[in-house]
Amino acid sequence: MMINNFFILLRQELLISAIIFILLFIKLGKDRSNESILHVINLLLCLNFAAGFIPMLEGELFNSMFATSKLVVLEKNILNLTIWIISMQSYAWLKTHQHVIEFYILLLTSLLGMFFLISSGNLLMFYLGLEMSTIPLAAAANFDLTKRQSSEAAFKLIISSAFSSSLLLLGISFIYGSTSTLIFSEIPMHLIYSPLQIFAFILLVSGFAFKISAVPFHLWTADVYEGAPVAVTAFLSVVSKAAVLFTFTALLYKVFTPMASIWYAILILLSLATILIGNLFALRQDNLKRFLAFSSIAQLGFILIGISGSSQQGFSSLVYFIIIYVFSNLAAFGVISLVSAVTGKENMNDFKGFYKNNPILSWVLTIALFSLAGVPPTAGFFGKLFLLMAGAANGNYWIIAFAALNMVISFYYYLKVVKAIFMDENEAPMQTIAIPTYPKVAMLICVAGIILTSFVTFIYDYIQSLSISL
Amino acid sequence: MSNYAYVLWIPLLPLLTFVVLGIFGRKYFKTSAGIIGTASLLAAAILSFNTAYHYFLVDGKVNGVFQKIIALQYTWLSFSPGVSVDMGIVIDPISVMMLMVVTSVSLMVHLFSLGYMKGEERFATYYAFLSLFTFSMLGLILSVNIFQVYIFWELVGASSFLLIGYYFSKPSAVAAAKKAFIVTRFADLGFLMGILILGFYGGTLDIGLLIQKLTSNTSPEFINITSASFLGASMLTWGLTLVFMGGAGKSAMFPLHIWLPDAMEGPTPVSALIHAATMVVAGVYLVARLFPIFSMDPTSLTIVTYVGAFSAFLAAVIACTQTDIKRVLAYSTMSQIGYMMFALGISKQGGEEGLGYMASMFHLFTHAFFKSLLFLGAGAVIHMVHSNEMKDMGGLRKLMPITHLSFLIACLAIAGIPPFAGFFSKEEILMAAFHSNKIIYGVALFTAAMTSFYMFRLYFSIFWSKEAAHHDHHHGEGTWSMKLPLVILSICAVGVGMIPFSSFVTSDGVALETHTDLMFSLAPVSLTIIAISLAAYLYKTQNQKPDQLATAWGGIYKAAYKKFYIDEVYLFITKKIIFPFIGQPIAWVDKNIVDGFVQSSATVTAKISSSIKGLQSGKIQSYTLYFFGGIIALSLLFIYIWK
C-alpha cells in the first residue's frame, strides 16, 4: 500500500529522476553527436510533459512532508511544458556546446528541487527543495564557458542566494522556535503576532522576494540575467519564478492566514516598489536580455498585486497569468536567444529594421511583447486584468490605478522595441536568420499559447475550479 | 425575433478579407486585392441595408417602440457569477444606423482607393488594413457587452495606428501614428477604469443589464454606486466621466484632440474613413449607447456638454486659420463632433426632452456623408496638385468639374443651407440647445457661422482665387472609381436630410414628432449666409484683404494659427515638468547615490583585494546591503510602527 502510493504520488518526480539517470548512462556510454543527444532529450521531455496529463491521485507522503493535489499537478505540468520549450529553444546554442548532458542534468535537478518545493508540506522539505533548485542553477549560469560575464553571473548568483537562504533559514528556525512545529498544517494555530514571529515572517518573505526578484531584493537579477546563457536566463525568469510564486502564495494563503493583514501590507509595499523600479529601469535598457529582466521585475509587481487579493480568485489569476507569462516570455526569449546564438547581437540598435529580413521572427517577438505589455486582445491583457481584479477585491483602488498607470508606462518601452523592429531605418539590417526545426516548434507552441489562452474559456474555468480546493 | 443572426456576416466578411489579404495578399492578390476588398464590403453593405430595411420598416417595431434585439450572444470569459465578457450582436436603432454609416462610407472609401492608391507597392496590405479597421468598427457598434466594446475599441485604435502609419517611410507619418496611439491609449486607460467601476458596482458587464440596474432609483446597485463617493463625487459620476474620457480621446475632444490634426499624415481616403465617419464618432456612439445611465447623472452630462461645446468652438476658431486643407477638415470634424457631444449632453432620456439625443444621432448620420465627401474631394485635389497647401491650389473648378460640384454640395451641407443634409440635423441640435441652455445655444450659433466661413474659405481657395497654375495634368480628375464615390456621396449629402430620422432613432425608441420652424431657422441661416458672403468677399479672388485682416487681428490670429499652443503646452508639461522634476531626480539618485555608492564600495574593495575586484565588480556587497536594508526597513515598519 505504502509502496503503491509512493510510486503513484511521486510519479512526476520519479519521471524527472529517470530522465536524469538515462542522461547519465548516455554520458557514460560511447560518444554521440550532440544532435542525436538533443533529439533524445527533447523526445524525453516531450513524453514527460505528455505523461503529466495522465490523471493522478491526491494524497500525502512521509508524514505529510510531501503533498500533492490536482492543482499541484497542474503547476508541475506547467513547469514541464516550460522546460521542454526552453530545451527546444536552446537547440541552436547547445548544438555546438561541449557539455550538453551536464547542462541538462543541472537543469533537471533544479526542476526536481522545484517539484519538491511545490509539494512541500513542511518547512524542512520546503527548504531542501528550494536549495536543490538553486544550487544547480548557479552552475548552469556558468555554461557560456568562454565568456567571463557568464562566470561572473554564476558567482553572483551563488553568493547572493547563499546570503538569502541563510536568512531564510534563520526565519525558519525562529518560526520553529516560537511555534515548535515545522508542519504547515500545524503552524497557523501557533501564530500569535509576537514581534519574533513577525520578524521571522519578514525573513521568510525576503527569502521569497529574493527568488522572485521583488524590489529591493532584486539587484542580482539584471547582472545574472545578462551574463548567463539565454536558456538559463529564461529558466530563471520563468520556471524558477513560477515555482517559487506557487509555493509562496500557497504558504501565504494556507499557513500564514492569521497574519493576513501584515502580509497584505508587505505585498502592497513590495508590489508598488517593484512595479515602479522595474519600469523605470526597463525604460533605460539597451541590451534586450537586460530589458526583459527588468520588465519581468515589473511584471512580478503585478503578480504581487493579484496575490494580495488573497482569495480563490487571487490564486487562479496567479496560475492563469503564469501560463500566459510562460508563453509570452519564452516567445520573446526564444527569438532573442536564436538571434544571439546565430549573430551574437543582443542590443536594441541591432534590431532596427529587423522586420526587413526576418518577418516571422519579428512577428513572433511583436506578439510576445504585446502580450507582455498587456495589449488587448492578447492573452497578457486578460492575465493582467484578472490580477488587477483580484487585487481590487480588497477595495484598494489607488493601487489599481497606480498599477494601471504603470501599465501605460510599460507600453512605451515594449512598443519601443516593436518600433525598432518595424519602423526604424537601418542601413545594414540583420541578415536573414534560418530557424531550425526545434526552435520553430517552440515558437509555434508559444504563439499558439498566447492566442489560445485568451480565447479558450475552458482554461480559466478549469484553474478556477481547482483553486476552490485551496 | 432573432432572425437577425445573419448580421454576424457583416463584420465577418471584412475579417475574412483581412485574413486572406493579410496572408496571401502580397503573393497572389497584388493587384486584385482592391477588387476583392471592395466586393466583400459591397456584400456587407447590402446585408446592412437589408438589416436596416427589415428592422426599421418591417419588424423592428412592436407596439410603436423599437425593440432592442440581441441577435447572438456567446459567453467568452466569466470572471465570477454574473460578471462575464460576452461576445454578441445587438440590434437597435443606433446600431443599425451605424451599420449603414460604416459599411457605406467604408465601401465608398474602398472604391475611391482603387484609383487613389493604384500603383502603391503595399496595395494589398493597405486593403488588408482597411478591412481590419472596418471589421473592428463593426464589432464595436454591435457590442452587447461593455467589455466587448473595449476590446473592439482597442482593435480600432490598433488598426487606425496601422493605417495612419501606412506611409511608414515618412517620419512624420510614423510620429503621427505614434502620437495618435499614445494619446488615445492614455484616454483608454480612463475608459478601462470607468468600465471596471461600472462593472464593479453594477455587478455585470452586459450593457442591457447594466442600464437596467443603474437606471432605477431603487435598485441596490444604483444606491451603492451613488452613495459611494471619492473626492467629493459619486462613483457613478466617476465611472461615467472616465468612460467619457475614453470617448473624448477617440473623438478628439479638447484637451485630448491633439492627435487628430497630425493623423492627417495618413493616406487621404483613410482620413475620410477614420476621421470623418467612423472612429472619431465612436466616442459619441459610446455616450449614446450608455445614455440611459448618463441621463441619471447630471454632473457627468454637464461635463459632456461643456467639453463638447468648448471643443466645437475652439476647433472652429483654429480651422479659420489653417492653410493645410486636410487640417482644416480635421478641425472641422472636431468641431462637428463637439456639436454631437453637447447635443447629447443637453438631452434627457425619453420623449420630447430627448430631442438632443435624436439630433445628435441625426447629425452623426448626415455628417458621416458630407464629411467623407469633403475628405474624398480633398483627396482628389491632393492627387491632382500633389500638395496639401492652399497656396498651391486655386482655380481648379474648370479642371475638376465633378470634384468641384461635389465639394460645393458638401460645403453647403456642412454650412447648413437648406435643403442640404446638414441643415436639418444642425437645426435640430440648435433647437435642442435653444430649449435647454441659452449659453450653449449662443456658442453653437456662433460656431455655425464660423463653420460656414472656414468651409467657404476652403472652397474658394481651392476652386476659385487665382487662375489655375500649370499642373501636371496627366491623371486629370482621376479614374471612374474615384469619381463615382464623389457622385454617390453628393447625392447622399443632398438627400439624407430628408429622411424622417426622428421617427426611427430616438432615445427611447418611440417616434418623436419634430417640425421645422421657419422663424427659428431664420437666425442660423441668415448668419450662415453672411459668413459665406464674407468668405466670398475675402477669398473669391486673389487679393491682399486676408493678409491685412490677419495682420489686424495679429495676436489672436497667430494664436489660432498655432492652434492655441496646446501642443506646446503638452510638450512643455512633459519636457519641462515631468522630465526635469520627476525624471531627472530619479536619474540623479540613480547616478549619484546608487552608482556613487557602488563606485565607492568598488574602490574600497579595490584597496582590500585588487585581485578579485574584476570578478565581483564591487557590486555584490551593495546588493546584499540593499537586501539587508530591505529586511530592516520592513521589520522596523511592521514590528514598531504599523500594528
Describe, in short, the structure shown.
With 470 residues, chain A is an all-alpha fold. Chain A is 77% helix and 1% strand. In chain B, helix 6 runs antiparallel to helix 9, helix 9 (235-250) packs antiparallel against helix 12 (282-289) and helix 18 (421-436) packs antiparallel against helix 19 (438-463).
Structure description:
The complex is a heterodimer of chains A (470) and B (643). Chain A is 77% helix and 1% strand. Chain A is an all-alpha fold and 470 residues long. Chain A has one domain (140-468). In chain A, helix 4 packs antiparallel against helix 12 (230-255), helix 14 (288-308) packs antiparallel against helix 15 and helix 17 (359-373) packs parallel to helix 20. Chain A starts with a helix and ends with a helix. The model of chain A has no long low-confidence stretch (mean pLDDT 82). Chain B has 643 residues and is mainly alpha-helical. Chain B has helices at 9-28, 33-59, 93-116, 123-141, 146-164, 171-202, 207-214, 220-227, 235-250, 259-262, 268-277, 282-289, 291-294, 298-319, 325-345, 355-385, 401-415, 421-436, 438-463, 480-495, 518-539, 545-552, 554-561, 566-608, 613-616, 620-641; strands spanning 61-62, 65-66, 69-80, 83-91, 229-230, 233-234. Helix content of chain B is 70%, strand content 5%. In chain B, the strands form three sheets. Chain B has a two-stranded antiparallel ribbon with strand order 1-2. In chain B, strands 3-4 form a two-stranded antiparallel sheet. Chain B has a two-stranded antiparallel sheet with strand order 5-6. Chain B has 26 helices and six strands. At the A-B interface, helix 8, helix 10, helix 13, helix 18 and helix 19 of A face strand 3, helix 5, helix 6 and helix 26 of B.
